[in-house]
Design a protein that fits this description.
The structure is a homodimer. By secondary structure, chain A is an alpha/beta fold. Chain A is about 40% helix and about 20% strand. Chain A has 4 domains: about 80 residues, Beta Barrel (Barwin-like endoglucanases), CATH 2.40.40.20; about 45 residues, Transferase, Pyrimidine Nucleoside Phosphorylase, Chain A, domain 3; about 210 residues, Nucleoside phosphorylase/phosphoribosyltransferase catalytic domain (Pyrimidine Nucleoside Phosphorylase, Chain A, domain 2, 3-Layer(aba) Sandwich), CATH 3.40.1030.10; about 80 residues, Alpha-Beta Complex (Aldehyde Oxidoreductase, domain 3).
């Protein structure tokens, strides 16, 4: 059917048909059509919405993300046809039925994910089926390779290339801001791609963006790494393993990390940037993604086996994940804390120790330090100021101000200090509650929003001592966070009331 | 956040936010918000699309299906908040993890399905998880009861109430148009709700709509049944077991009938209309939903057990499903064939035998006939013209013309006769291909579209004999169907070429 395009600025995929045209085409709301730009030879699948007034008979509304691929001008004549489901739907059904997917089947599915040929229903069924009928190591390898091959890749002329990844779940985990410059200072190359927070209060990319732009193509990442030794960029802008972003969005409502997909997601990015040596940080503890040490060991073995199949030397560090790393949560607060350490501060100890331990493993793997001597070398590179020089170079190559100081970076102007409601030891910090509170205050989109902890687990506090401060860029956000804090109680003091009706134990 | 409503005629659920407002609210495309009509006390969840131009800052686009629940006027001030996922998401995750769902958990999920609190991703995950981690009979019973309780129900003062259901997959299965009036003629009550075709060429509701309106509320179904003994209406309009419609849409792309959901879907409707006695028609054969007799027996036992738990006496008939029932496929053609039999035609035999067999089982269950004598009674009610009188009463009570004759109903004006390309026996009819061909010709939305078979399996034909005719209401539809027919070859004659390049064996 010939229809006239009407571009609609709706940031979604899809087309809007008049009901009469939909009936003629034989499609219902939610069905799929092919939209064909004949002059350019572009065929794009799209899901149909219908209207009886917003779009006239003979015209078709094209939503923005669909037109990003169609490249139509308003009024262009296009051909629209009922579309058959893609072949990979049959493979997804196979996985639903508990069968194993071959290399080619997995590749077809991931190609259709990247080309947006799968409807949300089909993609969700794939993710759910792969979660329930767990992928075996062959399938995980196929998935990883398919993710790599459907995106951009980097190939360096000199080796080794190192990389690190934290599997997340711990607030305040700003260690990449120290590890990357430490490794660069040792002479290694580390083209680090990071994520933005989805459920967290700040991903490494959100933090780095306080200091410099983070959106670059894969080839820009390569050039910058060749030039200064490393980068800290947002992976989502690189077109590296782009299938992964769409899969993660499906997992998000369930807060599941389908094991196979998590392994593939992490390792695909490492393969795509050409990494030879990778250190994986697996935080362990209640309220993180991995609850126990045996579980962490199993995951570590799987990362190592997958790395082996892909030609990457992987080592894993199981780390303590029950408390935040350092004292701060939220973009500006975390960047300030990390920069202060690069500038010479000797605390917080938890941040420094974790960073030099993981950097040390990479230094040993790369032969820069003898076995057991990596952390000492990392500490020397950090305390000597060499890491700070490299961090400045990275900030500068990404387009930021290399002369920025920790003292220049300020938390939000609205602040609320929470005091101990009773004397006693701090007996618990709840990661989930801290993250939720920081998000209520506006993190990660408001850079100044976040939390600064004045006392950590095991500290003795007196009634009335400050235990943490909430910061926000906007007054109403602060109010919302205070309200949320009353409900969540992210910091527990021994002996404090857990609830008091009608009031709550905030001073 | 206070925003001004702008109603948008998009036949979908959701809201459209300006990107600036979305950022302030802290939501991304695909996230969920609560939209609150404070003056009416209505709170509705909605999924967010964003735009930078179509909707101005301070306003919010409300799509039509969302406003069906919000009842806003253009320009109304509303409150919009970030929404937490509903509690039933945790239950869905439980099912994904292979655990069993309790009665309360299943009820919460189905309540959220009906209230549209679940996103498409969440609903798909539930359906997929229930397909892979099969529901046990307790869970199926919970699901059935939850489906019943979240919709309208009918309660009759006199009993028994009978009902029938065909699980589908066979084209031309117009038997309800005979069975319902036969049972009514025996003095039984049958408030039959039927489906429209989703993947087929015509559901019973599509057929009945040729004769009379089919969209009624549950209480109208009750009143009409009390008055004339039976109805043949579209279940989708009744608000009986409304959760089912949304679940079926998710299963549609995969053509799966998750066993537990199919059992619950069928039986929930029977419970909701107050049925005491139910006959289930299970067609068996290649290219139907149930491939073999042992598989059909297993399904029959499950229907009977579920009926037992719900206080319904169920019997099942395994029927031959490899060929169409009767000679016609498509709304007008099928109605014409069924009316002709009610008016006194003594063929097609496959239609008459199947209808009186199934009606006979119901008559025996209800005590209207002795064991083994039901089919004879059904035949007598049919051949005597008593069923025709009742059909006229049903047509009239639903608002159609009771004096309609088979001869008044005409197939589409565009026709194409297909001739045998060789002499021999008809060795195969492909259900899928016949349905696909009828749909290409315009069925079920074009009433005149469809197929009339002149020879069925086992018939000997001579080269050049007509083997079937394709009908359509529109010339271009007929062309499309002819093209499709060349590819699909729905009728196979012994000895005919399966393919000839570059030509194909149509005469």
């Amino acid at each position: 059917m010939k229809l006239q395009a009407r571009l609609m600025d709706i940031a979604n995929r899809g087309v809007l048909l008049n009901r009469a045209d939909a009936r003629l085409l034989g499609v219902l709301d939610g069905d799929r059509v092919q939209v064909i730009n004949e002059s350019q030879g572009i065929v794009v699948p799209a899901v149909v919405d219908t209207t009886s007034s917003l779009i006239e008979k003979g015209t078709i509304g094209i939503y923005r993300l669909t037109n990003d691929r169609m490249m139509l001008a308003d009024g262009d004549a296009i051909e629209v046809r009922e579309a058959l489901p893609p072949a990979s739907v049959a493979h997804i059904k196979k996985k639903m039925n508990g069968e194993r997917l071959s290399k080619d089947e997995m590749a077809e599915i991931i190609q259709d994910v990247v080309n947006e040929n799968l409807s949300p229903t089909e993609l969700t069924a794939f993710v759910t089926a792969s979660y329930i009928n767990e992928l075996d190591m062959d399938e995980i390898e196929h998935l990883t390779r398919a993710m790599v091959e459907t995106g951009d890749q980097i190939s360096f002329s000199s080796h080794p290339i190192v990389d690190k990844h934290s599997i997340g779940g711990v607030p305040g985990n700003k260690i990449s801001l120290l590890i990357v410059p430490i490794l660069v200072a040792s002479g290694l190359k580390i083209p680090k791609t990071s994520s933005r927070a989805i459920t967290g209060a700040g991903g490494t990319a959100d933090l780095m963006e306080v200091l410099a732009p983070v959106e670059f193509s894969a080839s820009e990442v390569q050039m910058m790494t060749e030039k200064v030794g490393g980068t800290i960029v947002w992976g989502g802008a690189t077109n590296i393993a782009p299938a992964d972003d769409r899969i993660i969005l499906v997992e998000y409502p369930f807060k599941i990390d389908a094991r196979g997909q998590m392994l593939a997601s992490v390792m695909a990015k490492k393969v795509a940037v050409g990494a030879d040596l990778v250190v994986i940080d697996i935080p362990i503890g209640e309220n993180t993604k991995v609850g126990s040490v045996p579980e962490g060991r199993k995951l570590a073995r799987e990362f190592i086996e997958l790395g082996d199949r892909l030609g990457i030397n992987v080592q894993c560090a199981l780390t303590y994940g029950e408390s935040p790393v350092g004292h701060t949560i939220g973009p500006n607060l975390e960047v300030q804390e990390a920069l202060a350490v690069l500038e010479g501060a000797r605390e917080p100890n938890s941040l420094i120790q974790k960073s030099i331990s993981i950097a040390g493993i990479a230094l040993e793997m790369a032969g820069k330090a003898a076995h057991g001597a990596g952390a000492d070398l990392a500490q020397e590179l950090l305390f000597s100021g060499k890491a700070l020089e490299k961090m400045k170079a990275i900030i500068e190559v990404q387009g930021g101000n290399p002369n920025v100081k920790a003292a220049d970076i300020r938390p939000g102007e609205y602040a609320f200090e929470v005091h101990a409601p009773a004397s006693g030891y701090i007996i618990g910090l709840n990661n989930h509650a801290l993250i939720s509170l920081a998000r209520s205050a506006g993190a990660p989109s408001d850079n100044g929003a976040g939390i600064c902890l004045h006392a950590k687990k095991g500290t003795r506090v007196k009634k009335g001592d400050p235990i943490f401060t909430i910061y926000a860029d906007k007054a109403w956000r602060l109010e919302k966070a205070i309200e949320e804090g009353r409900r969540l109680m992210p910091v527990m003091v021994e002996g404090m009331l857990l609830d008091r009706i009608p009031d709550t134990p905030w001073s």
